[in-house]
Specification:
This protein has a single domain, classed as Vaccinia Virus protein VP39 (Rossmann fold). By secondary structure, the chain is of the alpha/beta class. The protein has nine helices and seven strands; from the N terminus they run H-H-H-E-H-E-H-E-E-H-E-H-H-H-E-E. The longest helix has 21 residues. Strands 3-2-1-4-5-7-6 form a seven-stranded mixed beta sheet, sandwiched between helices. Helix 7 packs antiparallel against helix 8.
């Protein structure tokens, strides 16, 4: 069974809406509490993961960077460590983007980081425009994974790198058992009580479970056209940093 033939996991499971539409709706709904919940539920470890991911781009010294599924722009801000001349954050949720723009103004970095509404599977940029690309916890939300990955490859230049940070399923005791319990019970409970959106945080473990991780994901990257693909598990396999070069 191919990735595209598998059951589509959606936040609200509405028959009249696509996954893309539901993901946008979900992030609009939780945008007001997203940053707090994101760092709270990950115990702040997500910041360390982003720093490690950004370090993987450093040897390329990228000047133009695109951050997909940017949300409120945390990955885009982390990319400033690379001294880029331009960072573009793209997301399908206007609610998240508005929070991100407020964040950029407070940090006085809006002259470097722009926040744009867009579809990761149909990007409004010319071929080979960016030197590097990041996406944090976003590819599992793509409606058509291979199409989205191919579009990412299109907009980075030859020799450019895509760095993909995504949740994965730990394999070893006790991280495996602890993470399963935390993601299945604690995250939905806290997410519902704080964000008032039960479905959004129930969707998280469901989407992680359905995502083709590890070697399966590397195989998809190679199929789409990436080379020198690698996977680096972090924090006992709770998340994985994938890299691929054009």
């Amino acid at each position: 069974m191919s990735v595209e033939e598998k059951k589509v996991v959606k936040p609200y499971n509405k028959s009249d809406k696509s996954k893309k539409e539901e993901v946008a709706e979900m992030f609009d709904n939780i945008s007001g509490r997203y940053d707090f919940l994101n760092h709270f539920l990950s115990l702040g470890i997500d910041k360390l993961w982003r720093k490690r991911a950004i370090k993987m781009l450093k040897p390329l010294q990228p000047k133009k960077i695109i951050d997909l599924a940017t949300g409120t722009g945390d990955f885009a801000i982390a990319a400033l460590k690379l001294n880029p001349t331009e960072v573009v954050g793209v997301d399908i949720s206007n609610g998240m983007l508005e929070k991100g723009r407020e964040k950029m103004k407070k940090r006085n970095v809006e002259h470097i980081i722009s926040m744009k509404n867009g579809d990761s599977e149909d990007l409004p940029f010319e071929d080979n425009y960016f030197d590097g690309l990041t996406v944090g916890f976003g590819v599992r939300n793509y409606e058509n994974l291979e199409k989205g990955l191919a579009e990412m490859l299109r907009v980075i230049n030859k020799g450019g790198m895509a760095v993909i940070l995504e949740f994965s399923k730990p394999k070893k005791f006790p991280v495996k058992q602890s993470f399963q319990f935390y993601s299945k019970y604690i995250i939905p409970l806290l997410g519902k009580s704080i964000s008032k959106d039960k479905s959004a945080y129930a969707y998280l473990p469901e989407s992680v479970a359905a995502f083709p991780e590890g070697q399966d994901f590397l195989d998809i990257l190679k199929k789409v056209g990436y080379r020198d693909v690698k996977a680096k598990p972090v924090s006992g396999g709770i998340a994985t940093i994938y890299t691929g070069v054009k």
